[in-house]
Design a protein that fits this description.
Order of helices and strands of chain B: HHH
Radius of gyration of chain B: 16 Å
Number of domains of chain B: 1
Largest sheet of chain B: none
Order of helices and strands of chain A: HHHHEEEHHHHHHHHHEEEEHHHHHHH
Number of helices of chain B: 3
Number of domains of chain A: 2
Shape of chain B: elongated
Number of helices of chain A: 20
Helix content of chain B: over 70%
Structural class of chain B: mainly alpha
Strand content of chain B: under 5%
Number of strands of chain B: 0
Helix content of chain A: 55-70%
Structural class of chain A: alpha+beta
Radius of gyration of chain A: 26 Å
Distance between the termini of chain A: 27 Å
Number of strands of chain A: 7
Oligomer: heterodimer
Chain lengths: 542, 93
């Protein structure tokens, strides 16, 4: 909150106090929120980015039959060195050309912790021979747990940031007197007014989405943030299992019998699930106590065709393949949670819906960005000496540059690192991430050392150049240049190449506008004439 | 010295509000998520309902804290809600 100059703060109207709340709740974690928004936005194409990050894996022209693939991978697990009693795989679909699986590792190697994970080739069943990378998974994980800190801390930080966002959204709406009229108002090239109008348009247009995405983000990790009801209600693990069953298809395993018995064909079980939900609507196949007489196989329904993440699965007896039970519904509160969870992740989307998700989410990113910049624009006009601003102003100004323009450079550098780091490098996947953070830190240093305007122009320009050259780098370092992707109908690779150029153009425009900005911007304080024009979506991103 | 005292006195209510919003708001939200268990619902559904509602209650509490005329009033409001929720929360834990 602003320190009140007014001796009687009680006299401030609600709109004023909400405006201060909006400003400071937004600023305090604004930089964290901006990076969450941007990495979250690109995560709608997480699977595509992951495919791009493993160019050794061929583009899937046709989705392989999930049942056959499941059997192939199951065979692989039964042959696995040392054996594994528990594993889970996600079968390939239109967006995933590999099988991601994790499994419990045998305890005979001490010091190795519980689970291992890998990607498998759906055609051969063997582990894929691709470069070691997290791909799109890195942005996705950063989005809610950051990096270089314990996962739980990161998730708490994300939760606190989301809570600030929720407060900023509500207080922002209350602040707004004429939310409808202002939406159609855009005062072009009017300094602070233009920033305000852009911020308003971006916020109001996407308001339902911004509110939904913030709240549903909290819902995804609500058991971590609000564990008190759960702790009060359940005293024993058996009671708690009732709750878990409402949330997850990972059914806690019973005790193994100790009697050895081979697993019945997984293929037949997946076929039964396909009959129920559709040929390509299989999500995961989970097995517990494989090789034991008490083995259980769970086939989980895929995410397309339902806006819910609630568990839906068929459970089979592992040794006979007999269907034990079908679980397709949960309680009303659990279903509400499942729907919000699904709305947040958007995995049910077809291509068009996914692009809409991406666009409105990008508007949310721009909303946070314009809000951050507005803080400085508003205060710059009132600076006693524009040549020597006070510390807080300089801090926000520089942090804005590094966290907005600098993040674009850092994220693109991550993709560059994916193409440039040698596959033989030890800890390669980690090095890609280190490159991201090293570049980001350099951007902060650059923002601190250069004059503000120059820093904006240079970093936006750098992001534009890196994005523009990425398809070139891809053509030079892989067998899959753009012309090849276009010729073979590989829209994952072609789409990312083309999007790089679109984003390069966007950054170039922003760099040019920043370059044209008059320093001090006092001259823009003319009488503000209202020029209502219908603002097209995102029309005022700069 | 007097400037310092003045500073503290003018910042005091603001700090009080920030504490009320961050911690008082969370406490009320947490308390409500337990109190929900007293409703006639199955336990898993009640627990989830409490979790789902808690963030709205938290956000509402923060807005309340900064919307009312004084920090004292903000605290009193949170206290009243807490006192109302307490018997319900007590009965289930």
């Amino acid at each position: 909150m602003k320190t009140d100059q007014n001796p009687k703060p009680a006299g401030r109207g609600i709109r004023q106090s909400m405006s201060s709340l909006h400003t400071w709740a937004g600023l305090l974690l604004g930089w964290v929120l901006y990076s969450m928004f941007l990495t979250g936005t690109v995560s709608y194409f997480k699977d595509e980015l992951s495919q791009w990050a493993r160019p050794e894996l061929p583009h899937l022209v046709q989705v392989p039959d999930p049942a056959a693939v499941a059997q192939r991978i199951a065979n692989e697990f039964s042959r696995m060195d040392g054996g594994t009693s528990q594993w889970s795989m996600r079968v390939p679909d239109a967006r995933n050309n590999s099988v991601y699986a994790f499994w419990r590792t045998s305890a005979r190697t001490p010091g190795q912790r519980g689970f291992a994970e890998a990607h498998f080739d759906p055609a051969t069943g063997e582990k894929v021979a691709s470069r070691e990378t997290l791909g799109g998974e890195f942005f996705y994980r950063y989005h809610f747990q950051f990096h270089y800190m314990p996962v739980v801390w990161g998730r708490w930080l994300a939760g606190i940031a989301a809570m600030f966002m929720l407060v900023a959204i509500i207080s922002g709406v209350i602040t707004h007197k004429k939310i409808f009229v202002d939406f159609f108002t855009f005062r072009w090239r009017k300094g602070q007014r233009s920033w305000l109008d852009a911020h308003n348009a971006l916020s109001v247009f996407g308001l339902p989405f911004h509110a939904m995405i913030t709240y549903s983000g909290l819902v995804t990790l609500m058991a971590l943030y609000m564990p008190w009801g759960e702790r009060a209600a359940f005293k024993t693990p058996a009671e708690r299992a009732q709750l878990t069953a409402e949330l997850s298809a990972f059914v806690p395993p019973g005790k193994p019998s100790g009697q050895k018995a081979p697993l019945a064909p997984v293929e037949d079980m997946v076929r039964q699930a396909q009959e129920r939900w559709g040929q390509n609507n299989i999500g995961r196949v989970n097995v517990v106590h494989a090789g034991d007489a008490a083995a259980r196989v769970t086939v989980v329904r895929g995410e397309p065709g339902r806006v819910s993440m609630s568990p839906q699965y068929m459970m089979f007896e592992g040794t006979t393949g007999k269907l034990l039970n079908v679980s397709e519904s949960v309680g009303p509160a659990a279903e509400t949670r499942g729907v919000f969870y699904a709305l947040h992740l958007g995995r049910f989307s077809d291509t068009v819906t996914r692009w809409l998700y991406f666009l409105v989410s990008a508007m949310g990113t721009a909303m946070v960005g314009t809000g951050l910049v507005m803080w400085t624009v508003k205060r710059r006009e009132k600076l006693p000496d524009p040549q020597r601003p006070y510390f807080g102003f300089r801090l926000v100004e520089r942090m804005n540059i590094a966290s907005i323009a600098g993040l674009s450079v850092a994220m693109t550098s991550f993709l560059w690192a994916n193409r440039l780091l040698p596959s033989s490098l030890a800890g390669r996947a980690n090095w890609e991430i280190n490159v991201f953070f090293i570049v980001w830190a350099l951007m902060l240093l650059h923002a601190l050392l250069r004059p503000a305007k120059a820093a904006w122009v240079e970093q936006l320009g750098m992001a534009s150049a890196l994005l523009f050259l990425l398809p070139v780098l891809n053509a030079l370092t892989t067998q899959r240049p753009l012309w090849h992707s276009l010729a073979t109908g590989d829209w994952v690779f072609a789409g990312i190449d083309i999007m790089c150029w679109v984003l390069a153009a966007l950054h170039a425009v922003l760099a040019l506008r920043a370059a044209r900005q008059k320093t001090g911007s006092r001259s823009t304080r003319k009488t503000s004439r209202r020029a209502p024009i219908a603002v097209a979506a995102g029309g005022g991103a700069e | 010295m007097s400037i310092l005292v003045h500073r503290v006195r003018s910042a005091g209510p603001l700090i009080s509000r920030i504490v009320a919003a961050l911690f008082g708001g969370y406490a009320v939200a947490a308390l409500s998520s337990v109190a929900v268990l007293a409703l006639p619902m199955s336990k898993p559904q009640a627990v989830l309902t409490g979790m789902l509602a808690s963030f709205i209650i938290y956000a509402g509490a923060v807005i309340w804290v900064f919307a009312v005329r004084s920090a004292t009033k903000a605290w009193v409001g949170l206290m009243i809600v807490a006192v109302l929720l307490l018997p319900a929360a007590w009965s289930v834990s």
